[in-house]
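Marked as duplicate of an earlier ticket. Keeping the data here for the record.
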Amino acid sequence: MSPRLANVSGKETIRRLERLGFAAVRQKGGHVVMRRHSQGCVVPNHKEIKVGTLIGIKT
């Protein structure tokens, strides 16, 4: 049995990525592009991010 991921908002996800060294580069609509060195990811800035989307955000 795998551990369940908690419901997390886009704002909280962005905050956690910033703690890992990512910085918001730009935003278009409801999506924020985060970058750390050569790594990057797009975070939907929604009230709740689905589990599959959280798994797809690689750090």
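See parent ticket for discussion. The mean pLDDT is 87.
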